[in-house]
Write a structure and sequence with these properties.
Elements (H helix, E strand, L loop, with lengths): L1 E10 L22 H18 L3 E7 L2 H13 L6 E4 L8 E6 L3 E7 L10 E8 L2 E9 L7 H18 L5 E6 L6 H4 L14 H5 L20 E2 L12 E3 L2 E3 L2 E5 L9 E3 L5 E2 L6 E2 L2 E2 L23 E7 L2
Parallel strand pairs: 1-2, 7-8
Antiparallel strand pairs: 1-17, 2-4, 3-4, 5-6, 6-7, 8-12, 9-12, 10-11, 13-17, 14-17, 15-16
């Protein structure tokens, strides 16, 4: 079973609802129009089709309409996701969503706070060959914001996980705007470090003590394992900022998924998806706009993030 997460970089539809970023106001000076929207949909669909995941988490999609349009283009190109859900109960500018070939038992939102500053988390429960699996799609506050804001999302997530139970098959994935070792990376960044060195991804989700390969890990009941540790260090990236590789996108799993039982992680299968067409020189071939305001869409490129893919075994 293949799982993926992909931040598609501002997939806005062509309906004006007043929350758009300036350069995504439909049919305006920035040329966010039918032609460029169609190109963006086709390009993102190409990536998703080539991955061909059974379940894929999507970040930075504006509306249910945009999700349906993406799903329609995928279907035209031969990949059909019968099941879909977007976290749209709160009208944030961009949202998280999920596309699946496998039916949900349910899909619902986990509220982070009532504030529009925080995007809701999307929770989906599956039953695969009578085996339960919970997936949580995340998009935490931007890297430019203080760590305390990402901790708020992490705490809302762990509150829900405690209700389900850490002994369940749980996958946390999406754009956490956090490195797999965020606590090391931001120690000297006084602007972001307003939590005395504590991080949402490492301390709240408890990934620090789970840093070895899956087969060697000592199982710790309330700790999540970040799959980035299961690949070579130079391969751990989904984003490039000023020439430096970063892992803003992560896939974390609960202890039962390490134990080679009914559903489990296939060791060595985590990777960022990086075919040559998603790279341009040493950069990710993101969606292209002019460099100066007003930003004008050029009608080429994909996203500023690479997808992240992992595989799981479902036993009979």
């Amino acid at each position: 079973m293949t799982l993926a997460t992909y931040n598609v970089e501002n997939l806005f539809d062509l309906q004006k609802n007043g929350n758009e970023y300036e350069e995504y106001i439909p049919n305006g000076i920035s040329k966010w129009n039918q032609k460029n929207y169609k190109i963006k949909l086709e390009n993102i669909s190409q990536v998703i089709k080539d991955i061909n995941a059974d379940i894929i988490a999507i970040e930075e999609i504006e509306t249910l309409g945009a999700l349906k349009d993406l799903r329609f283009v995928l279907k035209q190109n031969g990949l059909y996701y019968q099941y879909y859900k977007i976290a749209d109960s709160k009208n944030t500018t961009i949202k998280v969503a999920i596309l699946s070939k496998i039916p949900f038992v349910y899909a619902k939102e986990v509220s982070v706070t009532a504030s529009y500053k925080y995007r809701n988390i999307l929770e989906a429960k599956f039953k695969i060959d009578n085996k339960e699996l919970y997936i949580f799609v995340n998009h935490w506050k931007a890297k430019s914001e203080a760590e305390s804001q990402r901790i708020i999302s992490a705490k809302a997530l762990t509150k829900r996980i405690k209700q389900i139970g850490y002994d369940k098959n749980i996958i946390l994935l999406g754009d956490f705007n956090s490195d797999y070792e965020e606590y090391e990376k931001f120690k000297r960044n006084r602007k972001l470090n307003d939590t005395n060195g504590k991080t949402g991804i490492n301390h709240v989700l408890k990934t620090i003590d789970q840093t070895r390969t899956a087969s060697q890990t000592k199982y710790k009941e309330y700790n999540f394992y970040n799959l980035w540790y299961d690949t070579n260090e130079d391969e751990r990236f989904s984003y490039i900022f000023r020439g430096k590789k970063e892992t803003l996108d992560n896939i974390l799993i609960s202890q039962p998924l390490l134990k080679n039982r009914n559903i489990y992680y296939k060791e060595g299968s985590i990777s960022s998806y990086k075919p040559s067409y998603l790279l341009k020189g040493k950069k990710i071939y993101r969606w292209q706009t002019s460099r100066k305001k007003p930003y004008i869409h050029k009608g080429k490129g994909y996203s500023d993030h690479l997808p992240v893919v992992a595989r799981f075994i479902v036993t009979n």
